[in-house]
Amino acid sequence: MSSVVSVPETGTTSREQFTVVPARHPWRWVAGIAVAAVVIMLLISAVSNPRFGWDKVSLYFRDVAIVDGIGITLFLTVVCMAAGVMLGVVLAVMQLSANPVVKASASAYVTIFRGTPVLVQLLFWFNLSALYPEITFGIPGVNLDANQIITPLAAAILGLGLNEAAYMSEIVRAGIQSIDQGQAEAAGALGMSRIQTLTRVILPQAMRVIIPPTGNEFIGMLKMTSLVSVLAVPELLYSAQIIYSKNLQVIPLLLVASIWYIIVTTVFTVGQGYLERHFARGTSRSTPPTLAERVRKFFAVHSAQGLGKGK
Amino acid sequence: MTIDTTMPPAAPIEPLPLVRAHGVRKSFGENEVLKGIDLEVRSGEVVCLIGASGSGKSTFLRCVNHLEKIDGGLVWVGERAVGYRIKGDKLHEQSHNEICADRTDIGMVFQHFNLFPHMTVLENLMEAPLRVLKQRKAEVRRRALDLLEKVGLSAKADAYPRHLSGGQQQRVAIARALCMQPKLMLFDEPTSALDPELVGEVLRVMKDLARTGMTMIVVTHEMGFARDVADRVVFMHGGRIIEEGPAEEVIGNPQHERTRAFLSAVL
């Protein structure tokens, strides 16, 4: 393993007597220029092609109908996600149950709702009155008219929420199973009940595993709400469709909707980072920096005074 | 009728031993790991269970607070049969929550500490007394800080377990168990997962605890600790108790061949 190192006659081998030559990366420059050229061409075409209709985009960007549509999109996202998470936790616990009937029921639920397209599920809920004209829940005295209860919005919430629960249950189950068995044993040895062990010890730790995919589900849900445009629920996409069906400015209004989707998902992505940081507490010696910290660090490093510090 | 005056005065009635295990059996599938364990531990006694891994000593310890369900025999802790309710001539298996309620006066320390990583040290100590025993917060807090001082970790009350060394984590785990004010403490190889230089600080805390008169059952490979602290040492092999007696006798002058073989391997 040892090798002979020739020591210069002067007798010193300190770094100071040498000049450090940084490594060159010519291919980085080539790749960078090529990609930049493509991006610039796309931008030029986007600006110069009048059919993009950017003036129409800015005209309709803050249209009342569009803003109301964003409101409904956000409402649907939050309500369906909340329903999905709550039902998902219940399903996950059922799947881990020792009771075979409970366990099989939860698995069947997951199989059915994950195995069918959510668009089909939405149409089913929308047409529920064809299946059950009167909803009684089997309780005498309860007699509800399905046509009145299952409004397009209700069908949207049922369809998206119940579908989401199936996906969330898998995420929660994976989170619960990622926690070391010793945690439940320690809680049990301290006399904590099953519910206390789950809510105080297991779930708070499982959150670290559950939050990142749930954030992705949340953003996925935001985009999935556009599916309920087929039920004529005036969310963001359907609001845009109503406008372009009248003025035929299809592309500008789809751009308006897309830009809003990007803005909202970006805001949520930043929020997700803060949430992950919160639940990482106690698990690692240093938590990843938040966006604000990264921005501050960026300006500290790239400021005029900071530039020399890297050397 | 003559009265025999030579009869010795009646011996003072010995209180029942705190832990009484009778014919405890336990199998994992086909593999019978406990083949009838009889052991009594009096209140205030420190008993060390020694033996090779696979001898069943940890499994037996876990039976004492019903982390493992026993297949035969009975373990009594105080007045209660662990895991069962006795009604007439029937043993009713307890529900999970009944078992949990019975565990509150048995503290347990694990090989891998099993602290709750998302809670601070102080929160680890206070969790069960607050949630399970429903004690008052101020009172629990005072007791928890007091215990942290006793294990030498007052400065770490607000630290998370991840930021502590293994030895510190195990001392917190001992304090957490003691915060429930148990009558009996079970230690399952408390120093086996520690770096050698950290073993001493944990053993010192356990020694201090033994001196306060706590009843302790300790599964350990630390023969020095067993010799110095244990009132009694129990050697297990193949799911049976092979030899038991005062520490200096079992370790210093083992009678059974297997005990001798084991001790010569570890000492």
UniProtKB/TrEMBL annotation, chain A:
Entry GO MF terms: transmembrane transporter activity
Pfam families for this protein: BPD_transp_1
CDD domains: TM_PBP2
Membrane-spanning intervals of the chain: 27-48, 69-94, 106-126, 250-275
Broad class of the protein's primary localization: membrane
InterPro entries, per the entry: AA_ABC_transptr_permease_3TM, ArtM/GltK/GlnP/TcyL/YhdX-like, MetI-like, MetI-like_sf
Residue ranges of every copy of the ABC transmembrane type-1 domain listed in the record: 70-272
Entry keyword annotation includes Transmembrane helix: yes
Family: Belongs to the binding-protein-dependent transport system permease family.
Protein name: Amino acid ABC transporter permease
Species this chain originates from: Arthrobacter terricola
